[in-house]
Input
Amino acid sequence: MALEQYQSDMETCCRCSACKFIPLEKVKGYEPVSICPSITYNDFHAYSGSGRMGIGVAILENRLEYTDKLLDVVYNCMTCGGCDISCKYAMDMEVLKPILETRIRCVENGHTLPVLDRLVASLRTRGHMVPGTKIKSGDWLEGKEAKDYTSQQCEVIFHAGCRTCFNKDMWKVARNTIDLLQQAGVDIGIAGDNESCCGGRAYQMGYKEDAVNQAEKNMAIYRKAGVKTLVTGCADCYHAFKVLYDEFGLKGNLEVLHSTEYLARLIHEGKLKPAKIVKLTVTYHDPCHLGRLGEPYIHWEGTQIPGHIRIFDPPKEFRRGTYGIYEPPREILRSIPGVNLVEMQRIKEYAWCCGAGGGVTESNPEFAAFAAGERISEAENTGAEAIATACPGCETSFGKSIKENDSSLKVYDVIELLYAAVT
Output
């Protein structure tokens, strides 16, 4: 798809500002009601989904120059999809896709941010987006053994992801996952030092060609190894493999599961039994790319019939965030003896972003910290002792915020709590 293909969506926007807030029927109290971190932080309409739709139209009509201020608006977005889901509560139109296509157009025309260029340069030369690190992508194993699917046939594989491989604080989550899968009798395969980035973050930042290249490389390896099921604990990777690869026409019949999906299934089958008590009151954060952006891609070919009312032939089904991965992580938490799950006000498809998406962590860390701090405050208001999530990006973002704000809250991956209850 290209920016031109979303011109009708962008021109349909009536500037109602619904993209800035949770739909009224879903609001649970006076605060919090915002869904978009960008407009909340910058407090100027251009930084909203609606504002960026207007920018997209202006770019198509050559009414804007690529100034530093324009790039500030374009790139100060976590691409979390909150605007898209809130708009679609009442409308049949795309909001996130035009925002992403605007970034792609900026990259194609050479209007990028140096800090993001460095990340993608690392992807092109080293296969991951962590420039300067001396850590290898398989170091997290620390002697743990599993099949190497890059050299032998393997039906079920585990993809750790860059945000786990190159962050030592996240290694335990990946090792816990492997331990649990092997304990349940799963003959799991890994790539170790040969694991390559999924390409999802490159796409979020506008580097679509690099994302497609990564998809082609990875799928070639999976086909050669006979992979049928891919399991990952990273929400960004899950979204890339399940949604983007399908959108690119490259996913084929590959089954993509988040680690919480697979482990919840194994618990239901009686292959894992959480028996040890973990005394903890916890609230759960829905990662954007696992939740509202994690529902399956919907293929559609047809035409839009011109007119005041938008009519699609054949009828077009829109992704509204309803079918993301929401229950498996919660089912795991509820299965653990002693865990008391309490919910925040903004949950599931209306969850507030952790701040780690869209390249913002690297390009505007102050903005990322604001988003994380907002979510930590919301978690504290539940009375929970800890916040659990299912993404290394979210856990890292929350961990920084907790430390910077001297919060007493703890942060865990759901897998860590399950591991404590099983082993």
